[in-house]
Amino acid sequence: MSELPAGSVIGIVGGGQLGRMLSVAASRLGFRCHIFEPSENPPAGQVAEYVTTAAYDDHDALRKFAESVDVITYEFENIPTEALDVLQALRPIRPGREALRVSQDRLIEKGFLQDLGLKTAPFADITDAASLEAALAEIGAPAILKTRRFGYDGKGQARIMTPDDAAGALADMAGAPAILEGFVNFTHEVSVIAARGLNGEVVCFDPGENVHEGGILRTTTVPANLTPMQRMDAGLLAGKILNALDYVGVMGVELFVTPQGLIVNEVAPRVHNSGHWTQNGCTTDQFEQHIRAVVGWPLGEGQRYADVVMENLIGDDLDKLPGYAKEPNTAIHLYGKADVKAGRKMGHVNRIVKD
Amino acid sequence: MSELPAGSVIGIVGGGQLGRMLSVAASRLGFRCHIFEPSENPPAGQVAEYVTTAAYDDHDALRKFAESVDVITYEFENIPTEALDVLQALRPIRPGREALRVSQDRLIEKGFLQDLGLKTAPFADITDAASLEAALAEIGAPAILKTRRFGYDGKGQARIMTPDDAAGALADMAGAPAILEGFVNFTHEVSVIAARGLNGEVVCFDPGENVHEGGILRTTTVPANLTPMQRMDAGLLAGKILNALDYVGVMGVELFVTPQGLIVNEVAPRVHNSGHWTQNGCTTDQFEQHIRAVVGWPLGEGQRYADVVMENLIGDDLDKLPGYAKEPNTAIHLYGKADVKAGRKMGHVNRIVKD
After folding, report:
1. Is B27 within 8 Å of A47 when comparing Cβ atoms?
2. Where does this protein hold ATP (chains A, B) (predicted)?
3. Contact with chain A for residue B353, Cβ under 8 A
4. Above 60 in pLDDT, residue A35?
5. Would you say domain B122-182 falls under CATH 3.30.70.260?
6. Which B residues in the span 265-304 are in contact with A, Cβ-Cβ below 8 Å?
7. By Cβ atoms counted within 10 A, which residue in A50, A198, B89, B278 is the most buried?
8. pLDDT, tens digit, for every residue of B217-264?
9. Does domain B9-93 have CATH number 2.40.440.10?
10. Is B30:B295 a contact under the CB 8 Å cutoff?
11. Among residues 219-248 of chain B, which lie with CB inside 8 Å of chain A?
């Protein structure tokens, strides 16, 4: 059944909470995990059999890591290209390089989505003040200037409410290649967590509705407020993206819901914070689904058996834990991070609101 | 809330599948685990942060282990008394020594249960051929001769169908202290997985109905075939046992269902194979429940949200995996054991038969 026999070792690049939960899911299916992570004492290291602590430019460490595993996956998309080259020469990387190439660069991603016939926010490549001025004239303000690469959780972004903000926003980019995105007039944001197996089968989880605060995901609620038609559209467009990339694994697709249809905001080639609800709402959660894809198992079905609200525990939200631990129907998931910092994701809770 | 702060280390004695699943549950609540296990490469070691490989008579290793953790629990009850003495001098052991003393010895356990007013099979202390003959005269055949200590999964047991079998059965005990138990005329076996918190609160999971083959648990089905009165009785008697032992943690109580009421077969002072269904039928499963008790968290509620059939994967049952992986509503749990052996528990599946 599986391309990889039981007991095979899965290499996971990145040792944060996503790597941690992937590692647990892999162990449930009888696989062993090796984490590669530059920081000391990564959350995933507490639950994985092997950990390599080394920088992404340490090619010797990368080679040894690759040679010790049977397949490589990752918990975040911003892995340096040269590190990927080293790894790929030795072991298969799933999801593959094309997914990383596309998702690592907002400009390439937007072009890719448009080529597939999907709707995105209006956008323009920004290289200097002149191109920004021209783009603002076309797209209009308010708009948002973002670095093309390495942005997450609201980092590397600057809002332009009026053309007067343009110079300051461009300065915020610190010379990094950037993209201007027009504001989308959306009613709410949803995301689809979708998976594609090694054999090409596609399975989608029910879309969740996301609420952000300060650029960080606060809650995801299933079911999302969507018409049956929108729900179907969401699944179809996710499948289109997965197939176009010959993708293997789980992907998170963020969508804006507008009266004119669903607009693709962003694609993450990995398990996604907005899919954490699946841990307590589905028999196969997003982490196991990803592992099943990566090792060549059949995918689990995505059927949802409960209504769930996922709430992130950010920074000193941890103080709420004593109360949460007493709540019925509330599952707590902590990440084992030693230091509480403002804006840091420390864990999440899944509240089952209806079986 | 918790007696132990997040990030505290839980020492787990025993590195098999129960220790493995306890370790995963502990990590979900933000705790780290240290496994103590005599065998090399224990299943729990693949998912725990620390592993000590040493014998139970290695007192130095036991001391170092105890000093490195904040609290100690265990996955099996047959820990040598001297090892427990070493550990207890340094850190709290939960569940406590009294539960181990009682459950390590079938004769003491039966007496304890009778003192609580609970029903057990008729039994007698067997020290030699004469006491066996006398016991058979009183209890009658068929009966079953068991070693008082260190029996599990049908080991250390011999059936006596007629008095002629007595000598052979006694020889099978190889001189170990033994107990004769009369056969109970039961319709089926159920077990209650119950938990008691550090503050004395008691929570029971819904009883499961067990089917054994060759002395090894084959399936557990919830709901069990019980009247509402029997279900209530099961919970009440489990609570009685927990309170009498001032117990902290999860306990498995095996019960025979007879027309004359519930008869207690055996008590296991730990998470129990017949409670594995809780992983896919409850928000807080038996492993997390045990960890919550051990660290002093409030217990989760035991409410069941689905009908589940748990099936053990024993030996080459693993060959069925490709088919099982394709089944909807089937959760697979493998233990990461390298060698497949006849009678060895390799994993289990939880089939959700009704949400």
Report:
1. yes
2. 106, 146, 151-157, 181-184, 189, 212, 265-266
3. no
4. yes
5. no
6. 280, 283-284, 292, 297-298, 300-301, 303
7. B278
8. 999 999 999 999 999 999 999 999 999 999 999 999 999 999 999 999
9. no
10. no
11. none
